[in-house]
Amino acid sequence: MPILLVRHGHAGSRSSWDGPDRDRPLSSKGRAQARSIATNLEKYCPARLLSSPYVRCTETLAPLAAVLGLEVEAVESLAEGRAYECLELIRRLAGTDVAMCSHGDVIPEVLMALASEDGLDLGPHPREAKGSVWVLDSAGNRFISATYIDAPV
Question: What is the total count of domains within the chain?
Fold first, then answer.
């Protein structure tokens, strides 16, 4: 039962968005990525979908939610600047079927912590492109393997 750690899809430039950054939606490229993510992750059958409350994250998981008949749960622990809280959440949910969507500042910190604390092998050049997924397998509360699924489109 892996944890699927998803980086939100492409959302365009912060500087060109006129409004609160939390409300910045996916771009057309990001929406295409979200549909591909749903296709790629459907086989894992996550029982829960957790997302940063930022619109671009909830929109990234929306197609998967539609396919699985689940709701996307907004969780502040997955928001920007919350790497420590995200790591705690991942540790609490180890061994459950969950997909969670977060941000480019959070995911690398979480992965580096898992590598350091659990000896998780992330390969020689860990990546976290927009729309990519890390499949994190655990034994107990220790993470033992990580597989990277590159961003679609």
Answer: 1
- Any alpha helices (H) in the chain, and if so which ranges? 28-41, 55-68, 83-92, 106-118
Within a domain: residue 14? Answer: no
- CATH number of the domain bearing residue 124: 3.40.50.1240
Strand 133-139: give its sheet, edge to edge: 72-74, 48-51, 98-102, 3-7, 133-139, 142-149
In a domain, residue 42? The reply is yes
Backbone angles phi, psi at 25, to 5 degrees: -85, 170
Query: 99 by DSSP, 3-state: which?
Result: strand
Per-residue model confidence as pLDDT tens for the chain (153 residues): 899 999 999 997 776 777 887 889 999 999 999 999 999 999 999 999 999 999 999 999 999 999 999 999 999 999 999 999 999 999 999 999 999 999 999 999 999 999 999 999 998 888 889 999 999 999 988 999 999 999 876
Distance CA 105, CA 82 (A): 9
The span from the CA of 69 to the CA of 133, in Å, is 21
Structure-token pair, residue 78 = 């997955």
